[in-house]
Structure formats: structure tokens, C-alpha cells
User: What shape does this take?
Amino acid sequence: MSEYPTALQIAEGVRSGDLKAVDVVEQHLTTIADTDGEIHAFNHVMADEARERAAAVDATVAAGGDPGPMAGVPVALKDNMCTRGVPTTCSSKILAGWLPPYDATVVQRLTAAGAVFVGKTNLDEFAMGSSTENSAFGPTRNPLDTERVPGGSSGGSAAAVAAGFAPVSLGSDTGGSIRQPAALCGVVGVKPTYGRVSRLGLIAFGSSLDQIGPFTHTVADAALTLETICGHDPGDSTSIPEPAPEFSAVLDRGVDGLRIGRITDLPEGADPDVVARTDEAFAALESAGATIVDVEVPAFTYGLTAYYLIAPAEASSNLARFDGVRYGLRVDGADVEEMMRNTRTAGFGDEVKRRILLGTYALSAGYYDAYYGKALKIRRLMAEDFAAAYQQCDVLLTPSSPSVAFPFGSKTDDPFAMYLCDTYTIPANLTGDPAMSVPFGDGADDLPVGVQIIAPSLGESVMLQVAAELERSAP
Assistant: This one.
């Protein structure tokens, strides 16, 4: 369990009057001011806005009102979620100076629940990366070992929770960008079912893959946050038209009678310490009454290949809007074409350019069927393989990341080595299924290992039920 106060504890204290939201927020702002110079979790700290919002929460309590289930809870937001009048950069030079004219739906829902936003967190530019080394504003450091990466692309959000800057943060997950940094930073990270959480106000990377989810210290805090941000949004055409269940109600049920799937044809490549912790997680669940079932998911091994055609293809389309005409950076040229070329050359980093080129190539005439079309067929096969596996088990268990946090620079010269960091997380994005990472013991150099739970679509409740048991039995 965490040494820091949980969101549930803070909200309960603020709602009862035992805690003042202004005091809670001030403590967290002080921690940020003292420590974030070394960590660089934040691109922008919203100190004045946070103090004003906390005072409003306290005023509601003093007047006998209820500010909501997340009253006074400091929350950090990944800097690809729109916040009205507050810089939103995607950690890219190309959005320099842009202030969104509206709040993302998740921001509106957290505000309505009484949460207090303390800042916008660093990320790999446009969420493209696995180490937060691709930010235009410099890397975020892992609070557990500042010589190592926090993971990515939501590295700033994971580090903010791990460092005690906020008990809750939001990230986005397109191929593992919540679960992988959660594993490397030793916190809980959840990618909900595609469509569970509105994407309105999330600046798109891969529209059929992106999903917003929380980082927290505890499974209970993750359940609370999901209850707050999930639910139908008519402003998002991919939003599932049903309310969020009471996820918190399942956390004490245990796993007696549940079937936990162990994928026998899982791609190799995980470090021995990660494999050992994952095996221990299976043993712990079996001891708690679950049945371990061996299953095959043949298409799992093709996930990485399909993803790195589908995601860049969607990115090349989504990022076409950043052209120097409508918002953000503009580098002048002799004509419009040269202006756009100059703007995109100066505004985008190497990894973003690499993926735009790859995606544009995959969508081009003569190559569409050979690359993008085949990748979509693999995606369908993967969904069918997972559906077959869920006929035999309730959830699947895998490592979250092939390794513990790695040193800065160790993978930057080899893009493929970096892409392999997402081997175990990508399939759930391609299928749209919910998945989460839970800390389960330590690996090499006493750094945390995360275990991933994947559940069928809309299966967050059973996923959280298993996660709570893993949390209770973690070494």
C-alpha cells in the first residue's frame, strides 16, 4: 500500500469537514514545487486555479452541501486533454501558444465530482513513445530511480502519482500508454473498454485505439475514478450508451470460483524477474480460490505488427490538422505549401515524423491492401481469438511490461526495441477490451513489476475484482 493518502481518504475527510481542500491542495503544490524540478512530471502547474477551486469546494462543505465523491482530491491531467484557457501542448512545439476554448468531458466530470486539477503532465509527443523521452520539453524521470525512464507515453501522469504530486492522474492509452508506465512506476493503471470513457477533448492519436484512464496508488481509488469519468457522452459518437456500474462494490468479493487464463503461446521476451512475478501472481490467485486455465491466443503474437500499421495510419490522418493555419505554431514561407512544410518540419519531433511517414505510406495507393488492409484482418482475427479464450476463462493474466524501468538512452537508437515495450499491452487496444496493470512485487534492481489483467469487453468489474485480490496478496 502507498505511503501517501488515498483519494478515498481525502474525499471522505473533505466531505466530512475533517480536512480542508485548500490544505490538501497546498500540501501537494508544495511537494510539486520542492521535487518536480528533478522529476519533470508537469509541463504546466495550475497552482492558482487549484487554490481557487479548492476554496470553492470548502465553501460548498461549509454551506452544508456535498461537493461530490472526489471532493478536494488533487488530480493531474495528461497534457493531451483539453482544459479551457490552460495550455494544452501534447508535449509538442507545434501547439505552442494554443489555449483550448473548452474542457474535455473527463475534465467536466471530475470537476462536477469535486476534484481539483493541479497541472498538466508531460508525455511522449502526441502520445507516441514508451519512455517519455520524445517530449519536446525534455524527459520525465522515474521517481523510484531518476536515472531511469517512467515509461510512456503517459510517463508524466504515472510519475506524478508515484512521486506523491497527486493521488490520481489521468492518462491516455493507445497501445499501452497507461499500463506500461504504471508498471514501471509501481502504481495502478487502467485502460477501460473502448467507448467507456468519452474521448471528447482528447487530442487524437489513433481514434479507434485511444482511451482515457486513471493512475492511482490503489485499486479502490481506480474504481472511484472510473465511476466518475465513465458513462455515455452524446458528444462522442463512439461512446457506449450506458451508465458506469458501481465498480467499488466488487472489490471485496475475492476470486473464489473465477477462472484465470494463462496464455500458453504468449510472445517470449519478458525478463526472468518479470516472468517470476507473473507466475507468483497466478499462484496467489490460485491460493485465493481461483482456477488457472491454460488458453491459446494465436493472434496475440501479431499484435505489435498490426498496431504499427493501424496506429500510424490513423495518426497520419489525425495529425494533418496541425498545418500552421488554424492554431499553434506557424513558420512562414513563400507560399502556403512552403509554410505548411516549414511549420511541420519545425513543429514535429523525429518519432512523430517517423510515424506519420509510416502511416501515410501504409495508406497510399498500391500499398493500402498489402499493409493497412492486412493489419485490419489481423485485428479481426485477434478479436476472435480473445473471444474464444473468454469462453474458457473470466480474465487473462500477463506481464504488463517485458522489463522493469530501463535507463535513459538505452533504447532511443533502436525504435524497434522501444516498440517491443508494448508487446503485452497492444492487443487489448486492438480488441477494445479493458486491461489494467497492478504492482506485484519487485524485479531487477528492486524496481517494481506490474502484472496485467485483461477482461472481456465491458468486463471492468471482474477485472477490478481480480486486481483487488492481487493487491491484497502482493509481496
In short: The mean pLDDT is 97. DSSP finds 15 helices and eleven strands in the chain. The longest strand covers residues 435-442. The domain at 7-250 is CATH 3.90.1300.10 (Amidase signature (AS) enzymes).
